[in-house]
Design brief:
Number of domains: 2
Strand order of the largest sheet: 3-4-2-1-5-6
Number of strands: 6
Structural class: alpha/beta
Number of helices: 10
CATH superfamily of the largest domain: Decaprenyl diphosphate synthase-like
Distance between the termini: 26 Å
Bound molecules: farnesyl diphosphate
CATH architecture of the largest domain: 3-Layer(aba) Sandwich
Radius of gyration: 20 Å
Length: 280
Amino acid sequence: MTWNEEQNSKDKEIQEHLIAQGNLPKHIAVIMDGNGRWALARQFARISGHKEGIESVRDIVKASSQLGIKYLTLYAFSIENWNRPLNEVGGLMKLLEHYLRQELDELHKNNVRLFTIGKVSSLPKVVKKLLHEAMERTANNTGLTLTLALSYSGRWDIVRAVQIISLDVRRGKISPEDINDELFSSYLQTRDLPDPDILIRSSGEMRLSNFLLWEIAYGEIFISQKLWPEFRRDELYEALYNYTSRERRFGRTSSQLASGETPDRKDSYFKRVVDALKNS
Ligand code: FPP
């Protein structure tokens, strides 16, 4: 059964309400934060928080795909995360390996294209191999593009781009005058992804933590108070309803915008619909 076939009617109804708002984001980026605190609160080892976090990954990937979102980018492991205790890093790599092994068939069956950004060369051999196979196998899928940011940091990618641009200038391939936003973006690892429309961060923290620093320039930010292991599709729906109610001006004034109208805030209406459906 595909994800669309197995969806229950209440959930479908909620998604239809959301889709009817008309301006769902094309690209959602997520900082999955709070796994450690979730585990600590239950006196579990931190890795249990990451394990439960994978359940949230599954649900958010599925819901995004069902909603017809085109791009979902998850911050799964930052370059800075290599500094965590060895057993946590090892545990996370094992979970990643497990996820790729277990999920690939399902992702493929549901037309998901897997992609990755980051310093992949520093990942364990087995993870690199699995990632490579998964990307190759799903390369022609046309549904959701699921990008895992692994051993990634925004500054790292920017510095890397500057190095390659400098080399291309030295080789005479481009001249310094050619460098503009568009050209710069084309040197980043995210070159094939549109800029994120919304960045969601769980666990109440209000930081970018070195994620997609260049790409997030005009992105809307939504902070959820839920810890990542508790962040499931209802929280995603809330973030998306909030997003659809915002006016994105990209530096212009309201009156310059073609739509001319600020949509009403739909959060409370949405909450009522979800609650009614849940309790019915
Ligand atoms: C941040 O929580 C989360 C991470 C560093 C890792 C996120 C990884 C997963 C959800 C699992 C693997 C992902 C995939 C895609 C297979 P934290 O540990 O910093 O939490 P804390 O701030 O409460 O300590």
